[in-house]
Amino acid sequence: MPDDGLLDRLSSWLCVHPDNPLRRFMIGYYLVGLAGLAVAIGLRLAGFNWVWVFLAALVAATVPVVLPIIAFVTFPYVRNVRGIRRGDYLAHWQYRNDEWARFGQHVEHESRRLMRLSPLFGGVLGVFAAGFAWLGSRDVSTALLMYGIIQGLSLVVALQYWFESRSQRAVHGDVYINTQGVLRPHGYLPISGLNISLVDVRVEPAPTGVTIMRFTIGSLTERLEAREQSFSIPVPDGREDEAAALATRLLPGGTTDDDVTLAVGSGGASGARGETVDRIFTQIAVRVTIA
Hints:
four-stranded antiparallel β-sheet, elongated, alpha+beta
């Protein structure tokens, strides 16, 4: 990929380059850091205890610590995105406007539940944070400030889900898939990495009338427990068989079902998490050996 100059390099160093899959996370993290710094300054000017000033400033102080970690973790992903742009992919799908609109409706339907849960979770967490703030300061304004910060962040998360679903409905583009990840119009999502393993791939019809390819990704927590997340992409009309063959190639050893739905990967839910752990440990061992 050609270098765009100083701005391109600076955005890469700060992990906000469009090719970085954690770009939105880092932008949000920078905003949270700036908010923490602003709150710390405001608390100090208002004459609050130094303990609260320190806690608020600590949020901003974590930014230079987290940045090199994110840069190290995302380097392989950025390299793969640039490889895809050079032609290293297994599938390249294009869509009609109506196909992408049906997929956007599907994403919006799935995001609606998360949008409702986010403020509710933020409200409960905000009450606990406000309670601890009041116990430490015996000041109602401090408690209300803590509650407002937590609830405000939860509303930002809800708005992010809303903007994401609306943008996917309004804007469409090409999708590229290879063995390492999926490059969508709205960013790159890895399906393989140091602590990421592809657990399941399914090609199935969605209620909105579009066929989707659903990827389930497994990773390990700090307790070495399996954690799974999923995302989906639309399958162009008439290319369901190609998607089925691609799913089998991405996850060898899978089994195909009937003509409507292809299920590849783990069988039962109980065995799936054990298989997730095995797959991730195998990938870690292979990558460490290669390194």
